[in-house]
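[Automated response] Your request has been received and processed.

Submitted sequence:
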Amino acid sequence: MQARTILDIRRQYNPRVWFVLAAAVLSLAADVTDRRTQTVPLPQGKAISIDIAIGTVRVEGWDQPDTAEITVERHAPSPAALSSLAASIDDSTARVAISSRQPDNGTDPAYRSDVTVRLPRGALVELIQIVEGRLTLSGLTGGLTASIRRGPIEAKDLSGTVRLSAEKGSIALTGASLTDGGLLRLRTFNGDIRLSLAARPEHARIMALALNGTIQSTIPLTVKDAWGPRWSEATLGRGEPVISLDVVNGTIQLTSP
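Generated structure:
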């Protein structure tokens, strides 16, 4: 009876499914992981930067003053391979630089570095660079510049000067707030942009450009799409701060309460 039950279960799945599942289990078993956590001083005016090849980066604002907590987790197929995946946290007077690159600037997905940073909300995130992976941001109010070559950017509760760009991947920012002298600039080559504002702005200059795609907005925009690229704009109040949204192939969605 038991043999018949097993046979019935096996018949429910394509042999290819069993092969993929087995390969996944072997891959997890072979994966070697190294984890390092470090706390560094991050007073006001001191910047932070992150540069990785393959992996996930998560940056979260917290209420601890003048302190950042950094966790770097490396993954590789074997202990010998792990030693070739360099990772460093360079704490100098001007900035904290986090880096993890493969030998010869490689991009092998078997070598991955996942970085999690918790830092004061108003800290300056000078630059985040990712070749392939995922970027998650939340609770930041200082200056922020980030780019990813392949993969999505997911962010929430950001304000200040924010510049996010992706070559091949979507950008989603929810709960964004405009501040005096600030900027929200989101750009992607292949992917969608979704921007949700925390409050309807009284003052703003909004510019949205879609070369091959559409633009949707709950804030009334002047639309120019009779020919060529889709271009939408609006000037509210004194016309600042600026919201700039650009896609080459994709859709722009702007929503506001």
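Summary generated for your ticket: Confidence is low (pLDDT under 50) at residues 1-13, 16-29. The first strand starts at residue 32 and ends at 41.
If you did not submit this request, please reply to this message.
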